[in-house]
Design brief:
By secondary structure, this protein is mostly helical. It has a single domain, classed as Four Helix Bundle (Hemerythrin (Met), subunit A). It is globular and about 50 Å long. 33% of the residues are buried.
Length: 207
């Protein structure tokens, strides 16, 4: 059973990489010349995605890394999270027509890109060396936690995606869903449940 689930569930490090890619996809939708409504929706979607990503990392992934290593890169990454959270809180209080709104969004983008680069070149490779046997379990815990965090914010998320839609509505909505990890989390939840059912019905043998 564990062998089957390991092929269906994302690992912790792959989940983080996917979060990074999806966030960048939403960032790339942002245009200084967009309407106030679209800007507000995109930035709120970005902020929600960053809040959920950071909380999951800090509750599950980084504690596991701290148990495995005392490397300075872990402390630095958590400091970067704190700065990103500060900037997110600042943007939450701003209106899109503020003179420094675009500048603040770009500053957040640069900070997030810097953090992603550090994680992907230092932290995630270290995790794949040090946490090899637990990455699948951590990924399952992170998926479950994501669903818990997203569920009570469903109305807020839908409202912000509605604001952000302009032009190619379907593509933008999928980008926003991906940034929040909803598509990946839903698929992971489905495949894990399906795997259990296959075992229960004897279709797949449990190792």
């Amino acid at each position: 059973m564990n062998s089957l689930l390991s092929h269906l569930q994302p690992t912790a490090t792959n989940m983080i990489r996917l979060d990074h890619a999806h966030l960048m996809s939403v960032f790339q939708q942002y245009r200084p010349g967009a309407t106030t409504r679209v800007k507000k929706g995109l930035v709120a979607t970005i902020c929600t995605a960053l809040e959920i990503h950071a909380q999951i990392d800090e509750e599950i992934f980084y504690p596991a890394m701290r148990e495995a290593t005392a490397d300075e890169s872990i402390r630095k990454s958590l400091e970067e999270h704190a700065e990103i959270n500060r900037m997110v809180a600042l943007l939450r209080k701003m209106e899109p027509d503020a003179t420094d709104y675009d500048e603040t969004v770009m500053a957040l983008m640069r900070e997030v890109m810097h953090h992603m680069a550090n994680e992907e070149t230092i932290v995630l490779p270290a995790a794949e060396r040090l946490l090899t046997d637990s990455l699948g379990d951590l990924g399952m815990r992170m998926t479950k936690r994501r669903l818990q965090l997203v569920a009570p914010r469903g109305g807020e998320i839908a409202l912000n995606m509605g604001r952000a839609v302009s032009g190619n509505a379907a593509a933008l909505s999928m980008t926003a869903l991906s940034a929040l990890g909803l598509a990946w989390a839903a698929r992971s939840n489905f495949t894990a449940t399906s795997a259990h059912r296959l075992v229960d019905h004897g279709v797949v043998n449990q190792p």
